[in-house]
Amino acid sequence: MEAPLYPDFPPHTPTPRGGQPAFWVGPRHLAGDDGRLYDAVADTLSGLGWTSLTIVRGRHEPDEALEDREVLRSTVLHISPDALRWAQWCLADEPFHLGDLPIAWQISAREDASSPLAHWSAYFTRDVPGEAVADFLLALDAHHQPTTPFTGPELVLGAVAAHGWFRDIGQPQAAAMDPTGASRISLGEVPPLIQDGDPRVLVTEADDAGPAGWQAWTEPALGAPCLWAASFAAGVPHDLVAAFAASLSSTAPVLRRVLPEATQERLLRAPAT
């Protein structure tokens, strides 16, 4: 028997695609990306008026007929109207990995359009709920100074605490987890290759801790592979991370047709009929 989620489900639900049953599910941080992380984010960026550019690569074998030539979509880049922020779909073009998972979206910002370098970048793997990435981008688009922090890390922890997450006993000012302990968000040393404009990143010695950035992930069971991971460079303003954290931990149900195998038994669901 499927448990009802919340009494305030949206009154109208879309028709399932291709006959696939659709469900309202929760919690959101275990719900995956419904197999449409690119579409969910790209639709948001299109609505914001960002320009999309696609680099198309082809594969041509000797003596191959023209109609047999294989054309592959490669990097897709979305650029804001002021050119201070951009989002790159990485899965199409040999992404690097985060927590043993390939990066799907890399989102960046810079201080000045004349600078070719990002001031900071944020990274999201597959199965990060698309709603959370979209809300991060909405906050980024509305931010007049996307490289300037106006708040401290408490805003991030307060965002998840408001939705029932618990602060880590050992790091109450830097980490929190959902009530089941499967999902966490933590402020600490960032993984290798995370791009940041802070010059201290370049001079940090091997034994020294560099500038701290936010990391978030879901580990469905102790020692099991992560379902998804997200990493924010130290330069990402805390209020932008808070927008992601608030959406990720939201108790509002999300529409899904494809449920992650690793967490589907832990999801509450109600038919979207």
Sum up the structure in keywords.
single chain; 273 residues; alpha+beta; disordered N terminus; three-stranded antiparallel β-sheet
Largest sheet: 11 strands, antiparallel
- Rg calculated over all Cα atoms: 20 Å
Report the end-to-end length measured between terminal Cα atoms.
16 Å
On the 0 to 100 scale, the average pLDDT is 85
Indicate the structural class. Answer: alpha+beta
Percent in helix: 10-25%
Number of strands: 14
Strand-residue proportion: 25-35%
The topology string of helices and strands comes to EHEEEEEEHHEEEHEEHEE
Number of separate helices: 5
The backbone outline, from C-alpha atoms, is: globular
What low-confidence regions span 5 or more consecutive residues with pLDDT below 50? 1-17
Structure description:
There is one protein chain. The two termini are 16 Å apart. Strands 2, 3, 4, 5, 6, 7, 8, 9, 10, 11 and 12 form an eleven-stranded antiparallel beta sheet that branches. The chain is built from five helices and 14 strands. The longest helix has 13 residues, at 130-142. Residues 1-17 have low confidence and may be disordered. Strand 5 and strand 6 form a beta hairpin. It is 17% helix and 28% strand. The chain is α+β, with helices and mostly antiparallel strands. The protein has helices at 37-47, 130-142, 154-161, 200-203, 238-248; strands at residues 23-26, 51-59, 70-79, 85-89, 97-98, 101-109, 120-125, 166-167, 175-177, 183-189, 212-218, 228-232, 254-256, 268-271.
